[in-house]
Amino acid sequence: MDIALDPAVVKRRRLRRLRYASVATMVVVAVWIALARMEPAAPAVDADTILRGTVKRGPFIREVRGSGTLVPEDTRWIAAATDGRVERILLSPGAAVAADSVILQLSNPQVEQEALNARLQLQSAQAQLENLRTQYDNDLLTLDSQVAALEADFEQARIEADTKTALAKQQLISEVERRQAQVRADALDKRLKIEVKRQQSARDSLDSRLRVPHAAVNQADAVATLYTSRLRSLHVRAGLAGVLQQVSVEVGQRVSPGTNLARVADPRHLKAELKIAETQAKDVEIGQPSEIDTRNGIAVARVTRKAPAAANGTVTVDITPTGPLPRGAVPDRSVDGTIQIERLESVLFVGRPSVSREHSTAGLFRMTNDGRAERVSVTFGSSSVSSIVVLGGLAEGDQVILSDMSKWDGFDTIRLR
20 to 30 A from 367, CA-CA: which of 122, 278, 334, 381? Predict the structure, then answer.
């Protein structure tokens, strides 16, 4: 049979159970709060997979780099001067040419006929000029003959007048005869003076009378020179000593004036034509020292030209060697170029991290002595090709991780294993 329990005992048991339940609940809550407040464990990163850099102090050279090609400083495109058909291609790309080397031949029967007609017209104009000059020379000779005859007649009349004047003084002849002789001498003197003036006038006007036929000859000569030049242009010449780089036409092709036929360049004088990022090209100026890396060696150079505008996010910059290029440097060879912008003395700098930008702030993992790396905020200044100035957040000798650590953005500390 059941024994009834004392109510006081039952009450004590209930209170004890409530206390146990409260303590257990409080322990569970405390554990939950502690777990909630705990930070996640630092992830482990393989030390061999990261790139490290050490903060240094010293001179810092700002540089920009770009890729490009070697191009000749002196390049000439040879254009067609007249219509024509390509008859023969005498030289192929790569051939060495002199200024008068014939690269290809064109044909145009109309140009040949026009040149022939122009030469005939020039010969005709020259013949007319010679005929007129001969005619005028003959006219001058006729005038010279007339003047000479009048001079002889005048001289004879003067002698006769002087003789009769002397005889009249001795009253051996009449005064009438003396006066007749004197009148004849005076008349011949006047005629002689008039003819001398006519002679001089004819000589003075000879150039003016020949000016018109002279102009016709000059005009015909200019036309003949033009058509002869067009005829000679059918033999397309290099016009520049160098190397034939390109022939842009084929045999049988019809070309019009202005069509590019071939390109010739002087391979002895090359320059590098670089493409510099628009954001980096703002500080590039003409005259800055630079280097050309041809993969066979490095040549010292200087900036000689900067394009006034950007294209496709880049600015074209020309750098010209100040000395000989390494062996194997030929036109159209791919090269790299480095341009020195400025030199800063005694500044903190480090290898350029993947997340760094000029004049910005970014988080980097700094190495600690216990095999860990902690995230610190670093302020950057000017940058170069492979390094960047540190303005704050790091000290000389600090080691930082330069690799891309965006995978660990949610952690402020990592472990290296």
Answer: 381
Overall size of the chain counted in residues: 417
Per-residue pLDDT tens digits for 65-84: 999 999 998 888 999 988 89
The reported pTM is 0.56
Find, among 235, 244, 237, 263, the residue nearest to 84 by Cα: 235
Both tokens of 74, joined, read: 């002196």
The tokens describing 401, both together, are 């991780």
End-to-end CA distance of the chain: 73
* DSSP at 407: G
DSSP state of 42: P
Strands, E assignment, 73-142? 75-79, 84-89, 96-97, 102-107
Give the pLDDT confidence of 118-136 residue by residue, as tens digits.
899 988 888 888 888 888 7
Angstrom distance (rounded) from CA 368 to CA 387 = 22
Identify the CA nearest to 320 among candidates 273, 281, 280: 273
Tell me how far apart the alpha carbons of residues 352 and 82 are, in angstroms, rounded to a whole number. 58
Query: How buried is residue 89: exposed, middle or buried, by Cβ count under 10 Å (0-12/13-18/19+)?
Result: middle
The beta strands (E) that lie in 83-158 are given as: 84-89, 96-97, 102-107
Neighbours of 84 (CB within 10 A): 26
